[in-house]
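lol ok so funny story. i was supposed to be doing the assay writeup but got distracted and ended up predicting the structure for this chain instead. priorities right. anyway since i did it might as well share w the group, maybe its usefull for someone
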Amino acid sequence: MFKLIVSDMDGTLLNKDKKVTEATKEAIKKLESHGARFTIATGRIYPAAKLYSDDLGIHTPLICCNGAVIIDPKTNEVLYGRHISKEIGCQVLDICERYGVYYHLYDKNTIYSDRMERVIAYFTEFSKDLPEDYKINTKIVSDTRALFEETTIYKIGMYYDNSETALEMRKALEVIPGASCFKSMDTMFDVLAEHTNKGTALQMLCNMLNLSLPEVVAFGDNENDLEMLQSAGYGVAMANAEDFVKDVADHIADSNEEDGVRLALEKLFKMV
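and the output, tada:
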């Protein structure tokens, strides 16, 4: 019997318009009557996850920043976190600057960068009209290295436009002692502290909830979901997932554009 459902957001739970369909919302609400709870495991910063979790009525802790932090959406309390040290962070930023790529840094509530573009520009605009509880703070700073002494940095994300440059940059990132690197979107790498991913966070969450991993169903579509799908009792890859993600999955669902999460839940829990 599955007791916990954990889903990635972008490319999985959300459609191309970054929305959860009404039919999927209804399926998630029905899970409680089937003895299961639902939560999110995302690369997004906490406020950008809470915006959706509150709409879905989620009370289970959220896995954010690709597994670097687990936060209780009822109290906003950090229940678990693995931050990036200054030593590792500065090496990552050196590589980003060497290749001339945009990068951003996440603490619990704020996105930082040294220039207004890409993710920080998107969330600056996105947050303007949101209620205060859901605003994603954004801040342009001249000395990004100082952030490692001023706040708790959980994730460094970077964009690349050239695949050859990306390959070289990833090789450089992967040899930094104490760091882990993976692709979270088609043109984006994330760096976290070593041994930090959605899979290790899922194990921590199960410990908190007194559940075992075989009782978990996990949904995902990209490289940053691999460990989570492999750890869960039942791993589900979306039809739009990377082939290597499908290879580790127990089931291939319909795509995020076809309500794949909903259809899989309805079948698993015999909702229809």
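The longest strand covers residues 179-185. The radius of gyration is 18 Å.
back to the writeup now i swear
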